[in-house]
Amino acid sequence: MTPNPALDAGEDPRVAAFEARIAAGESIEPKDWMPERYRKQLIRMMSQHAHSEVVGMLPEGNWITRAPSLRRKMSLIAKVQDEGGHGLYIYCGTETLGVDRQELVEQLLNGTAKYSSIFNYPTLSWADMGVIGWLVDGAAIVNQTILAKTSYGPYARAMIRICKEENFHKRQGYEIVATLAKGTPAQKAMVQDAVNRWWWPSLMMFGPSDTDSPNSGELLRWKVKRKTNDELRQRFVNLTIPQVQAVGLTVPDPDLRYDAATENWLFGPIDWAEFNEVIRGNGPCNKERLAARREAHEAGQWVREAATAYAAKHERRSTEAA
Ligand code: FAQ
Predict the structure, then answer these.
(1) Sign of torsion, CA 155 158 164 167?
(2) Which end of the chain offers a freer environment for a tag, N or C, measured as fewer CB atoms within 10 Å?
(3) pLDDT tens digits, residue range 258-286?
(4) Whole-angstrom Cα distance, residue 129 to residue 143?
(5) DSSP output for 109-172
(6) Ligand 1 contacts CB of residue 53 (under 6 A)
(7) 8 A C-beta contact, residue 135 and residue 240
(8) DSSP character for 283?
(9) Could you give the CA distance from residue 170 to residue 185 in angstroms, rounded to a whole number?
(10) Whole-angstrom Cα distance, residue 170 to residue 263?
(11) Cβ of 234 below 6 Å from ligand 1
(12) What are 170-181's pLDDT values in tens digits?
């Protein structure tokens, strides 16, 4: 597909045909014509999503060696491995838009690409493993269940599979939380402290409020997004507060109240200054996370070289045999 911004601006009849397909609820597939801007927006959003999954392995990976039992260790290893798989899956989906994965990885490693703000906070206690599964995977599910109906086919299909696994992660996290919440006073205090630290960052995962979201208008028009950031954040709060109450915990929000008229749990103001600092690279763990990714990338160089040499050898052999 040759980019042509002038034509993409609306003079091209293909834009109208494309938008008619979106309006009719059709799925856009890799070989279909699409406006250059649609392709760019998808590459941005999907690659940020893939980076988030991969960087998201780090906060939980930190606790694998310290899980309190073999059962907990096995399920945490499986969860972290799943997140890595989601990242690779979404990188593959992004490649269907004609971009090279190496380029995307370089953008992550040189700090020019974004990844979810949530993974720039430290995991200080075992209870964080429960709360991440419950709140962070829970927030991801709310966002991704809607993305499973996104207009770009490969992304939508990736979300269906990923959501199934995220649901399992959420249940695993909530089970850890429920166990600690009915444990000793020290265990209950530990899990309450984890909720206090992760609550607001989890709400920030949904992105800036709708009035400050520069990409939403375009993404909603093309049905890449089907709900706004604020709509999804509200849905998450409404789903989560009853779960908080069920295990006898609280969230750190003195303004939280149920509004019977709208059937919403209304929450207090989000600290957008903190959010902006984190996405600018100044959160508590941004530098540590990128350093860990760079180190892993360098350490994996020989594996990539070996895999490439192995693939080349096999291709050579099958050509010779043919
Ligand atoms: N963190 O105009 P908008 C997971 C940026 S996966 C960092 O509203 P948009 C699984 C945004 O990129 C979690 N940056 O943007 C897991 C934009 O910057 P740009 C990741 C953020 O795209 C669980 C600028 O702010 N999920 O958790 C954030 O319309 C447990 C303006 O924002 C996805 O990526 C943020 N929170 O809406 C793994 C889902 N929010 O690019 C391990 C797919 C916004 O213009 C353990 N993505 N920004 O420079 C989306 O749904 C959307 O991209 C949003 C943002 C909703 C994240």
Answers:
(1) negative
(2) C
(3) 999 999 999 999 999 999 999 999 999 99
(4) 20
(5) HTT-S---GGGGS---STHHHHHIIIIIHHHHHHHHHHHTT-SBHHHHHHHHHHHHHHHHHHHH
(6) yes
(7) yes
(8) S
(9) 24
(10) 24
(11) no
(12) 999 999 999 999
User: How much is the pLDDT for 2?
Assistant: 45
Query: Which of 38, 43, 52 gets mutated to test ligand 1 (max ligand atoms within 8 A of its CB)?
Result: 52
Alpha helices (H) in 30-69, listed in sequence order: 36-55, 57-61
pLDDT tens-digit map of 189-244 = 999 999 999 999 999 999 999 999 999 999 999 999 999 999 999 999 999 999 99
Burial zone of 238 (CB within 10 Å; 0-12 exposed, 13-18 middle, 19+ buried): middle
Our answer on whether the CB atom of 206 is closer than 6 Å to any ligand 1 atom is yes
Give the residue whose CA is nearest to atom 41 of ligand 1.
Answer: 44
Query: Which residue bears the tokens 């939403």?
Result: 216
Q: What's the CA gap between 118 and 135, in Å, rounded?
A: 11
Q: Measured from the CA of 137, which atom of ligand 1 is nearest? A: 23
Q: How far apart are CA 19 and CA 32, in angstroms?
A: 12
SS3 264: strand
- Which structure tokens are listed for 218? 């375009």
Which pLDDT score is estimated for 1?
Answer: 43
Nearest CA to ligand 1 atom 26: 49
The type of residue at 5 is P
Question: With a 6 A CB cut-off, is 172 part of the ligand 1 pocket?
Answer: no
Q: Is the CB of 173 under 6 A from ligand 1?
A: no
